């Protein structure tokens, strides 16, 4: 009898031990599962906290408009290029600047193949109907470039002369305001550089273009024997801006960065490097309001 009781007690003891082992295993498994879920949730939260990576912006230009953008030893350089770099660093964007040409840049922006364009682009109401613009970053006006000895003292003297302009620019608009829209005396060229070549070859008698570009050409080409004049009564001041596809979400970021670049003194530093003068940044900031 004692023998049987001992066996019974032994069996009960084994059952108890097995139960404890089973409970312990179950507890461990539950603990491991909970730990895994916690780690997974933590990873998801960390991923959610990470800032969304910004895309590399595709930016177009027409690198034939010194000193704003032009080719030098195979690279696009110029005042616009340096301003663009400062703004993109401030805004935190990486970008690729592509020399696509003037007319193709406009078409690519309209089709949203480019994120925006920078190419001494004048802000005006006609363009605003199709594109969006940043706040202004440069004030400009127009000048007339002609061969020395020509009897040109004002825009009115362009009447009856052969005039060269870059096609699709406000230089074309300025010339047409003087001699008439689609006048046969106006020759339209792909770039201002080609218009200057036409002037040198005697194909035209004057070029109407932006003042800084005109001054740059006269200063850098003394053998061309050309001079330049302005006519503030005939040529209104205008402002350049970055041009975007309509309803672009980038405008806000770029405007904020551009304002910071102007207010911080970085803009003035770049301006003086290219033009050797102090810019009127207050005028730019007021024009943006």
Automatic annotation (TrEMBL):
Residues 56-277 form the Ionotropic glutamate receptor C-terminal domain. It holds the Pfam family SBP_bac_3. SUPFAM superfamilies: Periplasmic binding protein-like II. Residues 28-37 have a biased composition (Low complexity). Residues 27-53 are annotated as: Disordered. CDD domains: PBP2_Arg_Lys_His. The keyword Transmembrane does not apply. Keywords: Lipoprotein, Palmitate, Signal. PANTHER family: ARGININE-BINDING EXTRACELLULAR PROTEIN ARTP, MEMBRANE-BOUND LYTIC MUREIN TRANSGLYCOSYLASE F. This is Basic amino acid ABC transporter substrate-binding protein.
């Amino acid at each position: 009898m004692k023998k049987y009781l001992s066996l019974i007690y032994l069996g009960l003891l084994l059952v108890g031990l097995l139960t404890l082992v089973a409970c312990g295993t179950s507890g461990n498994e539950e603990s491991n599962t909970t730990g895994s879920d916690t780690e997974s949730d933590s990873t998801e939260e960390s991923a959610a906290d990470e800032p969304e990576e910004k895309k590399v912006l595709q930016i177009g230009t027409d690198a034939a408009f010194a000193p704003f953008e032009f080719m030098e030893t195979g690279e696009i350089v110029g005042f616009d290029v340096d301003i663009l770099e400062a703004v993109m660093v401030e805004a935190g964007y990486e970008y690729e600047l592509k020399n696509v040409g003037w007319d193709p840049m406009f078409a690519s922006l309209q089709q949203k193949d480019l994120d925006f364009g920078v190419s001494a682009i004048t802000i005006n109401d006609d363009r605003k109907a199709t594109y969006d613009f940043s706040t202004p970053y440069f004030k400009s006006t127009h000048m007339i470039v002609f061969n020395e000895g020509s009897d040109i003292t004002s825009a009115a003297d362009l009447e009856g002369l052969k005039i060269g302009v870059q096609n699709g620019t406000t230089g074309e608009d300025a010339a047409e305001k003087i001699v008439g829209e689609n006048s046969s005396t106006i020759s339209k060229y792909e770039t201002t550089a080609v218009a200057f070549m036409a002037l040198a070859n005697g194909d035209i008698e004057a070029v109407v273009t932006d003042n800084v570009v005109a001054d740059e050409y006269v200063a850098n080409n003394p053998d061309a024997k050309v001079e330049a004049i302005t006519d503030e009564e005939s040529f209104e001041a205008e402002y350049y801006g970055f041009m975007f596809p309509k309803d672009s979400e980038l405008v806000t970021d770029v405007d904020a960065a551009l304002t910071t670049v102007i207010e911080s003194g970085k803009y003035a530093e770049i301006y003086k490097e290219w033009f050797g003068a102090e810019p009127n940044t207050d005028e730019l900031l007021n024009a943006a309001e």
